[in-house]
What we know:
The first copy, chain A, has helices spanning about 15-30, 35-40, 45-50, 55-75, 80, 85-100, 105-110, 110-120, 125-155, 160-180, 185-205. With about 210 residues, chain A is mainly alpha-helical.
Amino acid sequence: MTSRTTTSPRPSARLKLIEAAHILVRRRGYAATSVDEICAGAGVSKGAFFHHFASKEALAAAAAQAWTAHAEQFIFTLPDWTRIKDPLERLLAHIDFRAAMMDGPAEAYTCYVGTMVQESFASSEILRQAGDASITAYAERLAEDIDAAIALYGIKDGVTGISLAYHLQAVLQGAFILAKAKADPAIARDSAAHLKNYVVMLFDRKEA
Amino acid sequence: MTSRTTTSPRPSARLKLIEAAHILVRRRGYAATSVDEICAGAGVSKGAFFHHFASKEALAAAAAQAWTAHAEQFIFTLPDWTRIKDPLERLLAHIDFRAAMMDGPAEAYTCYVGTMVQESFASSEILRQAGDASITAYAERLAEDIDAAIALYGIKDGVTGISLAYHLQAVLQGAFILAKAKADPAIARDSAAHLKNYVVMLFDRKEA
């Protein structure tokens, strides 16, 4: 994010390139997306690209970091969600929210980071680590709420917040693949419903 | 599989190319893998490649079909698994088996079809459909057992066999992505354990 506070002649080019990477990689994958296509998608010159990024790999890693910030802004601090005081209700609302996002074309609701890691984990240690950092940040953020719910209600089978948070990530990532294969997000929403069902059974509140 | 019953001068070249595609696509993704690399991996000439396949896309679609046959041979008809008479025990053994497979380098245990569909769903309708066919075949095969378990034990919340079978697929596909990001299959086995936990709770056998 340094470009936005420096004297760069095009303060928004970096952000435009990252947003183009988010869209194009989710639509066509990382390897199939060229620097030229990203520049065209961003409406930015190739010179501007290399002013901000040394390579496609460097942009992709920065885009993973931006994806984490995006999740913080559009998921974790969403007023509809944060105003729910009960941490278990907030967790269930989180799953509902993620399921409600599963609509329209797959590139609009699937995960930039999951798509990037799927194909680049063995080819680029930089991208694997950038993907891990983003997935870990999401899981650790979510685990705070799950741990608060566990403290309040208890949980079956000694499940931990971080373990359940990663499992939530796994279900969503896999649900995206099924939705892509079927060209229909309904199958992904169905897996999200199973996940919610599992969480409800794990907590088994007598108050509910 | 026609090449194995025709008078092809190299009866095993087709199979070698499919096996090379399974390995290379799981390691590096579909777009990043070239026909030259597949030929080198298979130890087959480019001439032989184009004798069997019109394009990389045609090979990839055939490899998805072969992947389904592979699952039938190495998963669904495995003696350790089919000799279990109780369908719910067989389902739980299936999950255990899939978790036990999650070991070593990710390209050895992850899913060719899931990786292929992840990046090609919007670029190739042929590959999206080939991926859907393979995922659907797996889910429908597994749903037979789940439906038998439901008939025997009942299930909570009106869950259907096919819905739970697709959810199992989603969990595995997503677990693979987490394992790739962390360069460690332990996180994938942890999601498989959550899946097993969910199945046990859904059935809630009093006999167990």
